[in-house]
Amino acid sequence: MVPENFSRTVHDDLDDLSNCYRFGVYIDGVLVSTLRMHHVSADLPTSPSFNVYPDVLMPRLAAGESFIDPSRFAADPEWSKVYPQIPYITLRLAGMACFHFGAPYCLSTIRPDHAGFYKRIYYSEQIGELRDYPGLNYQVQLYQADVQAIKLRSFVRFPFFRSTPMERRMMFGQTGKGEPAPLTILPTARYMLHAA
């Protein structure tokens, strides 16, 4: 996906923005997947999809829409063979962000050969044509998922996509002054009684 580099990491200026949220999913202390998300609004109109498709997204931001823009989604192929649910669990975070921030759409700037997954699971529709993405060695297309469609259709098929307001607050909310940010978010269903 990206050229090899000495640090064996992928980092850009978008990682350090105030509207950026980065997550790692671990199994028994081993990192098995990652996801970066940006909450894109007229106040903070910067994200990976916005950088590639400003002509598509700017008029919608100006009209008051907002988006969750997940990127840098990666899952360890060996762990995914053992636990094929890893991609679903990881992308669940994007849906949680949509509900937490009240964003009606979730963007996906993806390779064309990945479009089938997003269409099938999230009922995503293409809204941007094939374009180059800086730093990647392939072209991408812009898709969007309607959050209400996710709620009405995907929740029925995949009930584990549901989340509680408390779980979303713990992941995306601002902590009070002097309070530490949560270091570990435990799955709602299993740890609900122990959640703060």
CATH architecture, please? Answer: 3-Layer(aba) Sandwich
Alpha carbon gap, first and last residue: 39 Å
Q: Work out the radius of gyration.
A: 17 Å
Order of secondary-structure elements: EEHHEHHEHEEHHH
Helix content: 25-40%
Question: Can you give the mean pLDDT?
Answer: 85
**Strand fraction:** 25-35%
User: Per the principal axes of the C-alpha atoms, what is the gross shape?
Assistant: globular
Main sheet attributes: strand count, strand direction, barrel closure: 6 strands, mixed
CATH H-level superfamily title: Gcn5-related N-acetyltransferase (GNAT)
Return the CATH class. Alpha Beta
The strand count comes to 6
How many helices in DSSP terms? 8
Q: Taking strands numbered 1, 2, ... along the chain, how are they ordered across the largest sheet?
A: 1-2-3-4-6-5
Which quaternary structure do these chains form?
single chain
Which stretches are poorly predicted, pLDDT < 50 over at least 5 residues?
Answer: 188-196
Query: What is the total domain count?
Result: 1
CATH topology: Aminopeptidase
